[in-house]
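Per your request, structure below.
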């Protein structure tokens, strides 16, 4: 029994310095950095900004021309077997944007980017607020627990 007690007490002594290191207080800046780096909402907001930037780039590009090909009356009978009697039509088309369509599309994409950037800023403030409020909440809980015991 004494051997078991000796092993248990040495485990406590060995674990104590490691526990003390893990519980070392963080500076406010370290806590803020950790909270911001680990916040998935902020990462999602940054991905939203990247997507909106892609939307702006795409909105500024003019539509591509389209090339088309159609084959009719192929695989007929007799002398017109296979592609002998086939009629082939090629077409080239280009969409022409009228009435400020392109300008409106670009303006919409710019506003979506602005909204995504605002969302990123707001989501970046949440972890900062939570880190700064945490000690106050902890102190309130401790005060309530002290009152409840008294």
């Amino acid at each position: 029994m004494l051997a078991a007690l000796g092993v248990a007490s040495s485990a406590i002594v060995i674990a104590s310095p490691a526990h003390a290191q893990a519980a070392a207080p963080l500076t406010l800046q370290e806590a803020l950095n950790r909270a911001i780096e680990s916040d998935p909402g902020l990462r999602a907001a940054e991905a939203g900004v990247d997507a909106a930037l892609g939307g702006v780039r795409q909105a500024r590009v003019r539509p591509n021309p389209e090339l088309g090909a159609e084959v009719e009356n192929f695989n007929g009978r007799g002398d017109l077997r296979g592609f002998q009697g086939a009629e082939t039509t090629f077409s080239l088309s280009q969409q022409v944007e009228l009435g400020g369509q392109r300008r409106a599309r670009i303006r919409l994409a710019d506003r979506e980017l602005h909204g995504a950037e605002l969302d990123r800023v707001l989501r970046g403030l949440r972890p900062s607020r939570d880190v700064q409020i945490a000690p106050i909440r902890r102190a309130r809980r401790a005060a309530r627990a002290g009152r409840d015991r008294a």
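The CA atoms of residues 22 and 109 lie 47 Å apart.

Regards,
D.
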